[in-house]
Design a protein that fits this description.
Elements: E1 2-7, E2 9-10, E3 13-14, H1 17-27, E4 34-43, H2 52-61, E5 66-68, H3 70-79, E6 82-91, H4 99-102, E7 112-117, E8 121-126
Antiparallel strand pairs: 1-8, 2-3, 4-5, 4-6, 6-7, 7-8
Helix pairs in contact: 1-3
Organism: Kiloniella laminariae
Protein name: Integron gene cassette protein
Length: about 140
């Protein structure tokens, strides 16, 4: 997998998830994947009228995380005004979301991984050899 790590802070501002998704959409067929939120700590308006703590509980209780279509993950990202920790993966099919592997950070079945870590580092893992431009997110 291609790995790109970046400081979350650019020009004194935190890179927002929706900006990351916009960049990915320019380089990948993002709408052909199933997206799963595996971990989230941040502020915004979660889907299905959930509170952030309720969303975190749903994510923890479901071995496959919280599942989104591309449009749904983009809508969710647009509501976020702060992301501290977040792990989102894209897969071709739901069967690729194997909890035992994901718990060990084995993302070999994933097409794309977006990992915000401790409000400091943004890591993108991409199975496809396409890369994001240096000036992107």
């Amino acid at each position: 997998m291609k790995v790109e790590s970046r400081n979350i802070w650019q020009d004194g501002r935190k890179i927002k998830l929706h900006a990351v998704l916009e960049e990915l959409s320019e380089n990948f067929s993002c709408d052909s994947y199933l997206w799963s939120l595996l971990y989230f700590d941040g502020k915004g308006s979660p889907p299905a009228n959930l509170s952030v703590p309720d969303l975190e509980d749903v994510v923890r209780s479901n071995p496959k995380g919280y599942l989104f279509s591309w449009a749904e993950v983009c809508d969710f990202a647009a509501t976020l005004y702060d992301t501290n920790d977040c792990l989102i993966v894209a897969v071709k099919e739901e069967a690729s979301l194997v909890k035992a592997e994901l718990d060990k950070d084995d993302f070999s079945r994933c097409e794309i991984v977006i990992d915000y870590h401790d409000s400091t580092i943004l890591t993108l893992l991409m199975k496809d050899e396409a890369t994001l431009p240096e000036s992107s997110v």
